[in-house]
Write a structure and sequence with these properties.
The chain has 411 residues and is an alpha/beta fold. The chain has helices spanning 2-12, 24-32, 43-47, 102-113, 128-138, 157-185, 198-206, 258-267, 295-301, 316-331, 342-350, 371-391, and strands spanning 16-21, 53-57, 62-65, 70-75, 87-93, 116-120, 210-211, 221-226, 232-241, 244-254, 272-277, 284-285, 293-294, 307-309, 334-337, 353-356, 361-366, 397-400, 407-410. The strands form five sheets. It has a seven-stranded mixed beta sheet with strand order 7-15-10-9-8-11-14. Strands 2-3-4-1-5-6 form a six-stranded mixed beta sheet, sandwiched between helices. Strands 12-13 form a two-stranded antiparallel ribbon.
């Protein structure tokens, strides 16, 4: 439906049109090469007949039409790379799994161009797609509709029950039922299949720990990072009150150097205690100086200090068997500001294991997508700050400060 809608729109108004999948690598298999099993024809050949095409580029999945319009497959994992060809119409496919940051990036472009956006998705828990659906149902200028299998004539009731039984036999009572309700009845209640933290985040929501969590001026703020340049760089901001961890803020961006993040930290009204960074903070890279500096050294020169570098995990099994359970154990003590930490909350809810399509099993490796960055930064908190505190039960932190302050201890 989305492809045919776009084909019609491209003939009615000349412009650029996009079809966005969560990850660029999915686009070729899911759309470009996909064949309609009912007709034996490629999906794109049905939607965009040869007669309306001027040329196509297989390499970047681009079609130019005879009237001057164009259509292209893109990925939300690289949304800011498609500059120079602003769309006037875009379909976000599997929106619940896409990077939600692509929408605020693209929305101003569509507003300026008086364009449109279409979001199609399977329900995947109570994440950004559910929030957008709720908005669409109540806001003018939007339309939202949920179409479970029971409202279509695709499956008979007998077929649906057989599918339910099969899923339960394969994945067990809990996961099988959740998958059935999600895929066939559009349920937003179940956790994303393979999600590491969805249950704990759902409990945080139901127990009122996802709410307004204001900054307390009398407490210092700790930050926890995941470093990247082409990938997103993420920062959690936390204050500890007794045995509770208050996450008061979250920041994520991509393509910027440490100077940008130093500026962001300075603009916030926080008194910082310590900054925890992953092992790659010690990696050296070329700078304007004659000596290659580590990212930690660059950050410290910019005023981001003191910094604690969290040791590297060389075995992926350690991450899955030790670090991820450490996060689960801590989430019951965590509070999250609903507004400021919204993107980070979605990342924790969506962080999940890879799924082996051939073997029909979850792998022992986390899926690397937009959820990874915020979740890895949270792992920095779990294995850095908390483990350090455990080794110093009476002394949370000892750190050296410059100037007249000398050594300072926080109890």
């Amino acid at each position: 439906m989305a492809l045919h809608f776009t084909a019609t729109a491209a003939m009615q108004r000349i412009g650029n049109y996009w079809h966005m999948l969560p990850m660029y690598a999915q686009a070729r298999k899911a759309i470009w090469d996909a064949v309609n099993p009912k007709t034996g024809k490629r999906r794109i050949d049905e939607a965009f007949p040869k007669e309306i095409r001027k040329k196509e580029r297989v390499s970047d999945m681009f079609i130019e039409f005879r009237n001057g319009s164009s259509w292209q497959l893109v990925g939300s994992d690289n949304y800011d790379a498609y500059v120079g060809s602003p769309p006037i119409g875009i379909t976000f496919s599997e929106w619940a799994l896409a990077n939600p940051m692509c929408w605020p990036y693209i929305m101003p472009i569509l507003e300026e161009n008086k364009g449109w956006a279409l979001f199609i998705t399977t329900s995947r828990g109570n994440n950004h797609a559910k929030k957008m659906l709720d908005l669409a149902k109540t806001s003018s200028g939007w339309f939202g509709e949920v179409v479970p299998a029971s409202k279509t004539n695709v499956f008979s009731q007998e077929t649906l029950e057989n599918i339910r039984v099969e899923l339960i036999n394969i994945f067990g009572e809990e996961h099988g039922e959740a998958l059935y309700q999600q895929e066939y009845h559009c349920s937003f209640e179940g956790a994303i299949f393979g999600s590491y933290f969805a249950k704990q985040m759902a409990l945080a929501e139901s127990s009122g720990r996802v709410c307004s969590v204001p900054h307390q001026t009398g407490l210092e703020v700790y930050t926890f990072w995941d470093l990247g340049v082409d990938d997103s760089m993420t920062i959690w901001f936390m204050q500890q009150t007794g045995k509770s961890f208050h996450f008061i803020d979250y920041y994520e961006n991509t393509g910027y150097g440490l100077e940008h993040y130093a500026k962001i930290l300075k603009e916030k009204p926080y008194n910082y205690a310590e900054h925890y960074m992953p092992h790659d903070a010690d990696a050296r890279e070329m700078t304007n100086s004659e000596v290659a500096l580590s990212r930690r050294e660059v950050a410290e020169n910019l005023g981001i200090k003191p910094i604690t570098v969290v040791s590297r995990v060389r075995n992926i099994d350690v991450k899955v068997q030790v670090q991820i359970p450490a996060v689960r154990n801590l989430l019951g003590q965590c509070w999250f500001d609903k507004e400021k930490c919204a993107k980070g909350i979605s990342a924790l809810e969506g962080y999940r294991a890879e799924y082996d399509e051939e073997k029909k099993v979850l792998s022992n490796r986390p899926l690397h997508d937009w959820c990874s960055h915020g979740s890895d930064a949270f792992i920095t908190f779990a294995v850095g700050y908390v483990e350090h505190s455990k080794s110093n039960p009476n002394l949370y932190k000892i750190r050296k400060r410059g100037g007249a302050n000398g050594w300072m201890a926080n109890y």
